[in-house]
Design a protein that fits this description.
Layout lengths: L2 H9 L7 E4 L5 E4 L6 E5 L2 H6 L4 H11 L2 E5 L1 H5 L1 H4 L9 H13 L4 H12 L3 H5 L20 H16 L6 E5 L5 H10 L2 E6 L2 H13 L6 E5 L11 E7 L10 H11 E14 L7 H6 L9 H10 L2 E9 L2 H15 L1 H8 L1 H20 L2 E10 L18
Parallel strand pairs: 1-3, 5-6, 5-8, 6-7, 8-9
Antiparallel strand pairs: 1-2, 3-4, 9-11, 10-11
Helix pairs in contact: 3-17, 12-14, 15-17, 16-17
Length: 398
């Protein structure tokens, strides 16, 4: 069957969508009823013919190169990946074996982990400043309303996590994967903690140190370029938090991660783990692991709970954030588009298109797929510092 026959045959399986497909020769096909949500334009016949052997990877590559374009709502197009059954985009055996090899190659030993971190987070602080918001928090914000700005929602996320940590003045806090230091600085300023943030990104370390100095917190908190497994803290930490880092650990290394968390947390201490997850266990999207986050894994709740408990830690609360990350990604994408000219100057048009489809695709995953954020509170042994209910988290906002 011709490529023009294959594409409509696949798209006919999609229901509840209104859109058009335009081919390289000017021909077009209309789907659904009502106003068009988007127009999908195939500009190159050879590229279109190659898509169906591995649509998850090749569609993104074709969009990055400009061989495919989308007029209208890109996220509404990408939601089709989640509306279709898995058989629609089934991979050949050859492609499955190739992707399995790629996952094995990116297994997260220490050297590979550092390479993976550098490849993403060391793109340059100027780039991330263009779209992350004033605190440069590169993780899911916490929205009270869908139309809130990103800085308000990120500040609320900081308050919420610090509330779960039951911070007190003078407590020693470890932030594993501290990013640019926003949460650590908030905890120091608002709760009087001392602490250490660790990252494997040189760019993050330098920016975090600069921000700490500007706030006059240099004698109170610090940031180090070190793997948390190498931290030697004989007295331990009162509190441990990790936000948006666990996705990069790798499923096979979860037991090791939690062993070190338990080692570093004092008896009776409290921790919070905040990670992207999914309801049903599965491998990460292969385009994401190839171009955005090599070695990443988004865990199901059982994949986290079992090694956490086996390390001697106790789960004390589990909260599921659903649409919050979709709203966060919407804000980031809006900021990227507003600064698209500068991003093109820094990295070129294919990079801008890659970042656009990455943010829009992830937002679609949280709206239409089974992705969520797991926010897990835990303790080392028994503690009397966590109240019986969640009422303490929802006092009136300042």
């Amino acid at each position: 069957m011709s490529t023009k026959g294959d594409i409509p045959r696949v798209l006919l399986r999609v229901t509840g969508a209104s859109f058009a497909v335009r081919f390289w020769d000017g021909a077009s096909v209309r789907y659904g009823e009502g106003p068009e949500e988007f127009v999908l334009h195939f500009k190159d016949e050879a590229v279109a013919r190659s898509l169906f052997g591995n649509l998850d990877v090749r569609f993104g590559e074709a969009y990055m190169s400009g061989a495919i374009d989308v007029e209208g709502d890109l996220q509404r197009l990408l939601r089709l990946m989640f509306l279709c059954g898995p058989e629609t985009f089934a991979l050949s055996l050859r492609e499955k074996l190739r992707l399995a090899w790629l996952r094995w190659r990116h297994a997260n030993d220490r050297t590979v982990t550092r390479q993976n971190v550098a490849g993403h987070y060391d793109l340059g602080n100027e780039f991330f400043k263009l779209w992350l918001g004033k605190e440069m928090a590169y993780s899911c914000a916490y929205f009270r309303r869908q139309d809130e700005d990103i800085d308000t929602a990120q500040e609320r996320k900081f308050r919420h996590i610090c509330g779960k940590l039951r911070l007190r003045e003078g407590a020693r806090l470890l932030d594993v994967g501290c990013g640019w230091g926003g949460l650590l600085a908030h905890a120091a300023l608002q709760h009087g903690v001392t602490g250490l943030g660790v990252t494997l990104s040189k760019e993050q370390e330098q920016e975090a140190r600069d921000r700490i100095a500007l706030r006059g917190l240099g004698g109170q908190i610090d940031v180090a370029l070190v793997d948390h497994r190498d931290i030697d803290e004989p007295d331990g930490f009162d509190r441990i938090v990790s936000v948006g880092m666990f996705e990069h650990v790798g499923k096979e290394r979860y037991p090791e991660y939690f062993r070190h968390t338990a080692r570093l947390l004092k008896p009776g201490g409290i921790g919070v783990l905040h990670t992207v997850g999914r309801h049903v266990a599965g491998v990460a999207n292969p385009w994401i692991t190839k171009y955005i986050f090599p070695g990443t894994h988004f865990p199901s709740l059982p994949e986290v709970a079992e090694p956490l408990a086996a390390s001697g830690l106790r789960i004390t609360d589990v909260e599921v954030w659903r649409l919050h990350y979709a709203f966060t990604l919407d804000r980031w994408l809006e900021a990227c588009e507003a600064n698209a000219g500068r991003i093109r100057e820094l990295y070129g048009e294919p990079f801008m298109r890659m970042w656009r489809i990455y943010l829009a695709g992830c937002a679609a995953g949280f709206r239409y797929g089974d992705f969520c954020v797991w926010q897990i509170q835990f303790s080392k042994g028994a503690t009397g510092e966590i109240p019986l209910t969640r009422d303490y988290l929802y006092s009136p906002e300042p």
